[in-house]
Amino acid sequence: MTRKIAKLLKTPFFCTAMAIFFGSMVACGILLLTGYSASESLAVMFNAVFSRPKFILNVILKSTPVILTGLSVAFAFKSGLFNIGAEGQYIVSTIASTITGILFDFHPIIQIPLVILSGMLAGGVLGGLVGILKSKFGIHEVLTSIMFNWIALYLCNFVVNIERFHKQDSDGTYSINPSGFTLLLNDWKFSEEGRNFLKDNPILSDIILKTDFNLNFLIAVLIAFIVWVIIYKTKKGYEFRVSGLNPDAAQKAGINVQKNTIYTLFISGLLSGVAGAFSITGTSIHNIQTLSMFENYGFNGLSVALIAGSSPLGCIISGLVFSALIYAGQSLQFKIGAPSEIVNIMIGIIVFFVALVRIVPTLVNRFLEREESLDVK
Prior knowledge:
Radius of gyration: 23 Å
Structural class: mainly alpha
Oligomer: single chain
Helix content: over 70%
Distance between the termini: 21 Å
CATH class of the largest domain: Mainly Alpha
Largest sheet: none
């Protein structure tokens, strides 16, 4: 029985659940110290996520980009690399997808893959450049990633202001052509037939009419499973992990660490690229805007990867939790006047506890060793 409990305590899921629980408790303590009711705040956040079908779906939809950027960061982590450039890769992906979606207007069967692939390739190329600079010139990926993040931001603003793409009297570009939208039932729900049907189905109406209803989340889940298979079930994934754990030993074993560095950051960029492409094809208003600051999808992906313990499948759960916290935090200020920044504090504390609870397996092992030694005596 003791060993079963010990095995449970050592699982990544239990460690992450503990981190979320303790992070929430500390955040409640902060709310109490600042004069707000913790129970009321938690009730507001709970209702903001679960009280209506559209709220639940919005949380799911908004989790898609952070799950994908979380996968991007986690994939690099598994190979011993720190892809802090997911933000820049996300941005260049949105640029490429928007340009492609505006310039071309093919049948959706061609247009949608074209727009998504262009975004993926843009993110992958930027990630690959970081890999080349590291493997060929020894420049640390954190330094180049940060620089590319800023280049991507200003490139976005440059493209927005190009006459061919800039929409007059706005801060953004034209929307991509509707043939590139990945929204489901988009035309039907605004038709007379659709409105009549939805009028008699309030739950479906809440979901379909009042959200950007699409399948991008399910595709993100599928991608997470594919990444898991690549990392743990393929020869190349093994090479990636070995290259990250011990580059010298990998090199002596005949593994080309330099090439794997480039491949890893290219694939990592592709994943952030999917996030950016989906944000253009599956989210209104289907364009890019002038940026005065980062949108934080890439940086939030870093938190998602850390909360998930760099597990590809864990990124699905942590992405949903992260999205729910961000979405619910918007209601705090509106409902009870509490600062929505308390959610950012909560996320930071959760990440801190994620690092802290990693000592739990070590403590459990020591306890078991001590128990065994006592049994022997």
